[in-house]
Amino acid sequence: xxxxxxxxxxxxxxxxxxxxxxSERRPDIVCLQETKCVDDAFxxxxxxxxxxxxxxxxxxxxxxxxxxxxFPLEDVTARLPGDEADSHARFMEAAxxxxxxxxxxxxxxxxxxxxxDTDKYSYKISWMDRLVHYARERLQLEEPLxxxxxxxxIPTELDARHPDRWRADALFLPxxxxxxxxxxxxxxxxxxxxxxxxxxxxxxxDYQAGAWQKNEGIRIDHLLLSPQAADRLIAAGVDxxxxxxxxxxxxxxxxxxxxxxx
DNA sequence: ATGGCCAATATGATTGGA
Length: 262
What we know:
- By secondary structure, this protein is α+β, with helices and mostly antiparallel strands.
- Helix content is about 20%, strand content about 25%.
- It has one domain (about 1-260): Deoxyribonuclease I, Chain A (4-Layer Sandwich).
- It is built from 6 helices and 12 strands.
- It has a 6-stranded mixed β-sheet with strand order 3-4-2-1-12-11.
- It binds one DNA strand through loops.
């Protein structure tokens, strides 16, 4: 079972890159973020033609998440509990059944939170509190669970080429990192950090200022595994080369292989 | 050389991203 996450920064602009990467990496399940389109306008056909079931939860202009899966998607839920007034399309969960066993997966697009002295940051923190609450409940099921997404959190100094430049940023503030550690402390495993000790790899390079050419990246896209998933982790990686393609997203795919057969 | 981008929108300037 290969599961991946990718912030595509507009699904309409990324159809060619996404289909090319799917053909190359051949993931079974993909969590997508920043699809930036309403559900009726989502280009499903190119992905269905590659054998994927498609579940979308989008909105006009901003945000938007989706799941692609070679297995049927069941119990699809497109709301993170805890705030009925939250209208942002940032979360979608589904259950997947395979011959090797069941898996629960969520596509997560955590708020950016900048600038930190505004209600955008308090929204980020309260969203993280809701995610902690959700994860705590799901972990009680003691099942394989993968939270894949753009968490907009740089976890440690190993996860930025120039950490000092990010000190005052909502992605790296102590309060942000503390809240992210609360997720770890529930018992979730960071798949990339389990597979490599760092520094790096990075998953995002800004379009501006030659960040890609100078490898001034950060690691903010993560796959967090429940103990029942982490016990089955075989390998994990970041497809950095995709950032060098024509018309790239500013994020690259992150993937993990799980041996689901107990 | 200390600045450089990209996507969506009833668009030609503004907003959001990170």
